[in-house]
Amino acid sequence: MGELLTLPQNFGNIFLGETFSCYVCVHNDSTQLVKDIMVKADLQTSSQRLTLSGGSSPPIPELGPEGSIDEVIHHEVKELGTHILVCAVSYTTQSSEKMYFRKFFKFQVLKPLDVKTKFYNAESDEVYLEAQVQNITAAPMVMEKVSLEPSASYSVSELNTEEKAGMSIFGTSVYLNPKDIRQYLYCLKPKAEVGAPRGVLKGVTNIGKLDIIWKTNMGEKGRLQTSPLQRMAPGYGDIRLTVEQIPDGVPMEKPFNFKCRVTNCCERTMDLLLLLQNSGTSGLYWCGVSGKQLGKLGPNTNMELNLTLLASVPGLQSISGLRLTDTYLKRTYEHDDIAQVFVYSDQEEPA
């Protein structure tokens, strides 16, 4: 039958996440009628062999002279490295002789994007994810979508648009030129109904997956999803102290209140005693009773503390000197530089 398959030697680059498309044509160049034609296309990768076409289809009864069998194959590329398209054709001649041959087409699947992630942990159990996406191809691409699909334990807020204008922080340009990098920021909050008690997220937690969709300069669409992003929750020791409410600025020589939360992060019950220590170098002084019994605090539970301070020195002052003693073990937990507050005089009250 002659050269039944004609494939180009080089069709360009194929990138991970794009759709590989191939037009297969089997043409009868002879003057004879052939029967029972089977066309099968497989894709061999470094780890598996995939059947793209003809795996379970019945044979085509006959193919006359100058006749052809045409098919377009589509496959989403999900592996890097060498790929081999194997096209196999079998048929029966008029003399009942069974014929068979194969054609091979080799191509490389390249990596289109380089994605790096960084995690930042906030005091409020929020997690900020920074994703750096770099175009490592030789041509510009259009970034259609870069989103974070959170796991069941988190809800997500995208921080890549201007709140007032509602526009992308990248402006109207959607192009990502070769070697260019874009940084995307997301805020994740633990869901109370499925997460651990407040302040007691421990161990490795699954954040979610990045979903990236782009188009090349010829309009071909590609899509990549990262593997689940893992984040190691910070360790807080036996007790965690977080600030719940504090004023941004306070007047000098006038008491002010702030609220904090104490969380028992260990597996035993504590009997806590509150100690307030004033430092001669600090411009803030505790108001209230030191040595107060707070009572028992069970494992993975928390309590709120409403405390009062007095500022005597203007400027940015740091709150320190809070001590919590577990009377069961006679162990004291020191908390310094808890938060900062701006102190101003009455004549310099900020607008």
UniProtKB/TrEMBL annotation:
Signal peptide: none annotated. InterPro entries: TRAPPC13, TRAPPC13_C, TRAPPC13_M, TRAPPC13_N. Residues 247-343 form the Trafficking protein particle complex subunit 13 C-terminal domain. This is Trafficking protein particle complex subunit 13. Belongs to the TRAPPC13 family. Pfam families: TRAPPC13_C, TRAPPC13_M, TRAPPC13_N. Residues 2-109 form the Trafficking protein particle complex subunit 13 N-terminal domain. Residues 113-234 form the Trafficking protein particle complex subunit 13 middle domain. Part of the multisubunit TRAPP (transport protein particle) complex.
